[in-house]
Specification:
Two copies of one chain form a homodimer. By secondary structure, chain A is an alpha/beta fold.
């Protein structure tokens, strides 16, 4: 047992916000929703904040209302917070300008998400917070779950002390939804971080009939400008206030943060600058490259507003010759993205000093790139491409990485085979499931169990489809003896599980498996009969990679235990049995504990059924001996014998666009589509959902005319209008 | 007669937008309201657009709704527009991201206004449009009324051709509300500017059951990034499309515009860069300084997004050594304001080329300044301070101009006496009136009369108080043989009129008068008795400046003609009589024509009464012989004998803040308050409106207990709660 906990970024930040707030105005929006939901839940449980009061949770009609409620609470002198993302943050902007102008200390915690443009996206990038950088709010960025907790404390403390409101943000999904083992901060430490005098001063500025004043005035040209500049000293003080808060935080917790942080060779020539979860793969790669003698480094930006220009330039090695600034957003029509412009200005200003005082003998070359839009993968191979570009004689001034741009040729190529060596003792696992089948929940639970039972550090990241229920989910788990900083997807997995046989048709589930890995498949075929039912591509992979394959009839076991389709606990037991990350008995005990906790309100019968399934799971687990590769029922390699090709007569008739794009999207090959394949204005051909046979149902209804009463309700309930009603005249 | 018209920026832009639109979604907001109001008015009159249809005007529930209606209309393939400012634009941001992402061509015309921060302000700066620069809209800036018309045409044409939506903006009030004589563009020319094929293509992309497609999709990490980059070619094409549209515009109208435009010495060393109405005083001063052999210049930015980096750098003289970028906005916490960052990046990128190819032998020093926030005056004296700063060895890297910043010492001092010589043949006039007393309306009418009757160029600018009705208005009029580019307040006026005697107590109305100017005062005292009633400061000014003073009892004349307090036409006649800008008979004829037009719907009686007042005006006009300076009833110079000092016993008891700040604001001396005087968070002491005795009423009600029925309605109607009701028991 350690004092550590395994939580996601949302929970880590929300806990701090909850402890330090009296009013929490919410209007949940993906991927920030869990922060509001946690707060609501905790308040319902009567959990107190640091002052022993249960915060008031107010759900408003929109994020605009949440921002208004926040603004009002702050004017009254109540410690208040909210959580949001994307368009939600946009709706808060008018109030944010006011809150900053009125020097009202608060923190909005943002799980940064794409703003909808040519298409909506629920996924993560920083286009929302960048659209808020004009508001005059301080901005502090966390790049990991641990930071999401720690910098939340710093943000609240610094806001109260400086009177400047803070946006505390971290990357949506990549950090907000990543489960990670972190050192929790105690209420005592949170309390110690907050200056009681600052709280008192804030409260005493609250509106009260006892000390009336006038706020929200209208000003004319005579004094508005002066009033606007009168706030300058408060902004000038913010960086040192944040730095001091970080120092106090270090003194109490041993975890040190800087406004900016340089990692790499002291004599680096090539430096990447970014903020957020993108720091993870860069820092990992820099570690490896420096070990190989390369002069590279990374500058991580934490305080983004007020922008610490001088500190940033000082943090760069004087040997720096080329800088790549990486922005996780896009501003069409600008010279470059926000962080790029800021770093350029900071370096430009630093060079504009009397001769001899410049930080660099020659101004470093600065280039800017976009990456990771809408949770696009950003891994060490892509970072490598950036450092390679920096080494060129004439690098691209502006670039993208992570995609193929064949329209404007801004994209960098990267070596898709490039992988960093994994840390010793680490175990990587990938699970394929369906939204709502319990796979993700079971994996979160497994991460918590391993984290708390073994003292190992866990990381769980879950790739969702925005179609949510019924769409494929891929869980990426890592466990190891040291904190996991790999904020990118697993490759070279030690263990792969597929919880739904049907997924074999559409996903290349074994691509992530390393040689000799274990592969667990849920299917109704026994170990002796399953081989012939596998796609031929998979047979080939199992043979080539020498995988150790296991099957379990989880649906059968769950069905026998009267659990319906809830296969998650069965699969979880099998994972523990095969992975060996901890003794299976101890794991089963904890799984049962989790079942008792989860289903307590459903009564003992449900708990007993789960226990029965858990106990039966191990007995059902069987090893498969690989056979010869044969032409199987479907190839699974896009050669035309798979489900898309064999089962969909439409394909041959589809217009060219549908062939090239829509079917590729459905096949899960969207990542490989170049920019030229995508409609620039977001318009797609209609009538293509019929091409996406998701085949989720284990049973298919068949119409029995002999008992049909013509009530017509089937037409009403069919969500896809596959059943249509027609009106005939009585004669017909 | 010329073909010219005298209109304000709002009308100039609205006319173009109206001609080119089928759907106009409105939610009027100051200072953009007149654009929506004009459109509504024209549609009510049945005025057709260029295609012979009356546009549909839709007033929504907020600017968010207007943006949604605009978005919907565009998706249907209807040419659509809207008008907004400030928070209104903020509410449009979510839809704007979508409209740009979907490549829907449209133009939002923005009368740029401050965003509310520590205080609300209805006045002009560019903080609103800068908050929209992240949306992916192209942005085109007009710096005068003529440009507001001309670039509106360019914006609509370029949007249709490029498919990228445009924000077309100009400074609120300074341009939106400035009356100016401009060359109107004909419907034929507007039509010729618009590519019919582009209109057809746009319509054919509209949603239709005949060609269904899917829009507004949600995209996942697999393709969102590629989709976002697929729009790049459209943005890359915008600058040349705008340039070509400007070329076509020149060919048809003879008026040439560039994406950026440099004016000044070809070998300039010091260059100012800005956009909007601030270009006016800079260009004027540069003209004078270059004439004196100074190596200075100004770069005017018109296309702000996509930012034309390379063109901008090329437009700067290669001799440039120091650049001051002037932003009319403030982004607290940023390295510098938006245009500063962009210009820095543009120059930085241009210098980052192989040796020998850099545009400048040495990188020019770049500094950034804020000016004109919330319609703060920006005149040649302030511009001079900027050029002086650029000449220093170590100029301030960031500065403000137009205020005194004694907190952070960013402000530049300027010579308040510095004035540029006025163009030959120009006539400048200033009028003091009260909101709703008709002064502004009469002056707009005078500007139109002079403009159309004499062929002179007119400029009318009107300084309002946000308290609107009953607050002081100051009208600044200029007339002359050439277009008036002085986008700043009049000083050294040839003519000053005060339409309300009470204003003499609170405003230094003669400060703007040049030596020998004419001064017209509306008062009930005759020419022989008025002298002793003038403030002693004013007596001194009249003597020192040798002013020619005239009086007229406009209220008496209007009263005799049964016009109540409508003194505007009487004063207007007197202005024409004294100014001599055109023959008085012709002026009277046109004033009567305007009366007939304005009051046609009120019937012949009202028109006849106005005619009677007009005819009586000249007879009532009388010259005043200045007497000796005497200690008058009130000094008017803040020495304690004026109304604030003499009539308000509160002053002595007011807290220090009220003494220093509130009373200075009320006295109209707010412009001189330094930053340290202003509350940084916008909080003011309460209960100070009693200090602002506006004394607007010419008659004061007195309670007559003998006829009071105790109905209590006086308490209900008193807007200032000066009458209070108390409940007593019957015994009392």
């Amino acid at each position: 047992m350690t004092g550590r906990v395994c939580v996601d970024g949302n929970e880590a930040a929300a806990r701090v916000a909850y402890s330090l707030s009296e009013v929490i105005a919410i209007y949940p929006i993906t991927p920030a929703s869990p922060m509001g939901e946690h707060a609501d839940d905790w308040a319902a449980q009567g959990r107190p904040n640091l002052w022993g009061e249960v915060p008031e949770i107010v759900e408003m009609q929109s994020e605009a209302g949440a921002a208004g409620a926040l603004h009002g609470a702050l004017q009254k002198g109540a410690l208040a917070t909210t959580f949001t993302a994307s368009q939600g943050l946009l709706l808060m902007l008018p109030n944010m300008f006011k809150v900053a102008g009125e020097l009202l200390p608060t923190v909005i915690h943002v799980a940064a998400r794409s703003v909808a443009t040519h298409a909506l996206s629920i996924f993560g990038d920083q286009s929302d917070v960048m659209a808020a950088r004009t508001t005059g709010w301080a901005m502090l960025c966390s790049s990991s779950v641990q930071e999401a907790q720690d910098l939340a404390v710093v943000a609240h403390a610094a806001a109260l002390e400086s009177r400047v409101p803070f946006v505390h943000f971290f990357d949506g999904f990549r950090t907000s939804h990543e489960m990670a083992t972190i050192d929790p901060i105690s209420d005592t430490d949170i309390g110690a971080m907050v200056d009681a005098d600052a709280v008192l001063a804030f409260r005493s500025r609250g509106m009260s009939p006892d000390r009336p004043d006038v706020r929200g005035t209208a000003q004319n040209p005579d004094v508005f400008f002066q009033g606007r500049e009168a706030g300058n000293p408060y902004y000038a003080a913010v960086p040192s206030i944040v730095a001091r808060a970080m120092d106090r935080f270090f003194a109490r917790t041993g975890r040190r943060y800087g406004l900016v942080e340089y990692v790499g060779a002291p004599d680096a020539e090539r430096v990447a600058v970014t903020m957020g979860s993108g720091c993870g793969p860069i820092e990992e790669l820099v570690g490896v490259m420096v070990g190989e003698g390369e002069r590279v480094g990374v500058l991580k930006v934490r305080l983004y507003r007020p922008f610490p220009s001088e500190l940033l330039v000082k943090a760069l090695p004087p040997t720096t010759k080329a800088v790549a600034v990486l922005d996780r957003c896009k501003e069409a029509g600008s010279v470059g993205e926000p962080l790029y412009l800021d770093v350029r200005a900071a370096i430009g200003e630093a060079m504009s000093v009397p001769p001899g005082e410049a930080p660099f003998p020659q101004p470093p070359r600065v280039i800017g790139g976009r990456y990771g839009l809408s949770s696009k993968e950003f891994n060490p191979a892509m970072v490598k491409a950036v450092f390679d570009e920096l080494a060129r004689e004439q690098p691209k001034r502006h670039f993208t990485v992570g995609i193929k741009d064949d329209l404007t040729n801004l994209s960098l190529d990267w070596d898709r085979e490039y992988q960093l060596p994994r840390p010793a003792g680490e175990f990587q696992a990938v699970f394929y499931g369906l939204g709502s089948d319990g796979t993700v929940g079971a994996n979160k639970n497994s991460a918590k169990i391993i984290s708390t039972a073994t003292g190992q550090y866990a990381q769980g990241y879950f790739v969702y489809d925005s179609k949510k229920s019924g769409a494929m989910t891929v869980s990426h788990l890592r466990f190891g003896p040291s904190p996991v900083r790999s904020s990118y997807l697993v490759s070279g997995a030690d263990f792969v599980a597929c919880h739904q046989f049907g997924l074999l048709e559409r996903a290349d589930v074994l691509a992530v498996a390393k040689n000799g890995a274990k592969f667990l498949l849920n299917c109704s075929w026994g170990p002796d009969e399953v081989w012939g039912h596998l796609p031929s591509r998979m047979q080939a992979q199992i043979l080539a990679k020498d995988l150790e394959m296991w099957v379990v009839d989880a649906a059968g076991i769950a069905g026998a235990a009267q659990l319906g389709g809830r296969i998650n606990t069965v699969m979880q037991v099998c994972f523990f049995a095969l992975s060996g990350v901890m003794p299976i008995e101890a794991a089963i005990e904890r799984i049962k504990g989790a079942v008792e906790k989860s289903y307590a309100k459903r009564g003992p019968t449900v708990i007993e059924r789960n226990f029965a399934a858990i106990d039966a799971a191990l007995a059902g687990l069987a090893r498969v001996q690989a056979g010869e590769r044969a032409v199987a029922l479907f190839a699974g390699d896009g050669t035309g014998t798979d489900w898309l090709g064999a089962h969909l007569p439409q394909q041959g008739k589809s217009p060219d666009f549908v062939q090239r794009v829509t079917l590729a999207l459905i096949a899960g090959e969207g990542d490989d589509l170049p920019t030229s394949a995508l409609p620039a204005d977001g318009r797609f051909p209609a009538g293509t959902s019929k091409l996406e046979k998701r085949r989720l149902a284990t049973d298919i209804p068949v119409w029995d005319p002999s008992i049909c009463t013509d009530c017509g309700k089937c037409v009403i309930v069919c969500p896809h209008a596959a059943l249509r009603m027609k009106v005939f005249s009585p004669e017909a």
